[in-house]
Amino acid sequence: MPELPEVEALAQYLRGRTVGRTVTRVEVAAISALKTFRPAPTALRGGTVLDVGRHGKWLDTVVETPADGVLHLVWHLSRAGWVRWYDALTDRPARPGKSPIALRVGFDDGSGFDLTEAGTRKRLAVHVVADPAEVPQIATLGVEPLSDAFTPERLGELLAARNQQVKGLLRDQGTIAGIGNAYSDEILLVTRTSPFAPTRSYDDARTQRLHEAIRTVLTEAVEAASGKPAADLKDAKRQGMRVHGRTGLPCPGWDGTPCGDTVHEVSFADSSLQYCPTCQTGGKPLADRRLSRLLR
């Protein structure tokens, strides 16, 4: 699933190619992806793109339309969605049920993009709204971790609000927006922390280290992703991971010095996490499977 760095890079990529362009085509190919019905997606036709922004993991194309004023085409790529950009978009219409395409958008210079979704579990979500806050999942987003509002003090308040596993807090979009499974693994390696450490065990010094790691890991990932074509972002993300998705491979170390251990995994029903016992859990492997006793 694309997370804050990849979504920010996609916003930059689309912003540079669509701002000032007129929308000429909007075709919904997967009705299950469209979560709103008024205004209709066709209301975007003839409108001018003003900006492309981001809310957590949501992308937001801002369009000034002839009849409805400023509208927002917002979407969440979920686990299997992606953006395919074309300098020359095909003239063929997007046919429902015939391909992974969920939505096609075209512009007056012949360019455009498809939103696609692989697999059978369709979770990609597309909304056309006058205000992004009309989308409940956007309205309830937590603090942006790269914003000025995200201070060590604010993080301390979030950690103390209720006792839970720190990885769960990092992934909770209503608490901190944009971090998912991959970057939470990376952040916890850098802070040398077990993913199951209780949040109320954090003192001021430990909170400061976590805050610094969040900002550093995400900033470096955004910088690494910026300027890359949409087609290259998935590979760039995989190549930049220290522990996530690297089960059985040597751990590069929390500070870039190999520790001599290998990356371990804890599996759940529909996901998994990766960590290094030497760097994060005092050399003790965590018990696998969610019903097992988990080390703190």
TrEMBL record:
A Pfam cross-reference name: H2TH
Record domain FPG-type: where: 242-281
CDD domains per UniProt: BaFpgNei_N_1 (cd08973)
Presence of keyword Lyase: yes
Keyword terms, alphabetized: DNA damage, DNA repair, DNA-binding, Glycosidase, Hydrolase, Lyase, Metal-binding, Multifunctional enzyme, Zinc, Zinc-finger
Superkingdom of the organism of origin: Bacteria
The keyword Acyltransferase is annotated on this UniProt entry: no
Family under the similarity heading: Belongs to the FPG family.
Protein name: Fpg/Nei family DNA glycosylase
Organism: Cellulomonas shaoxiangyii
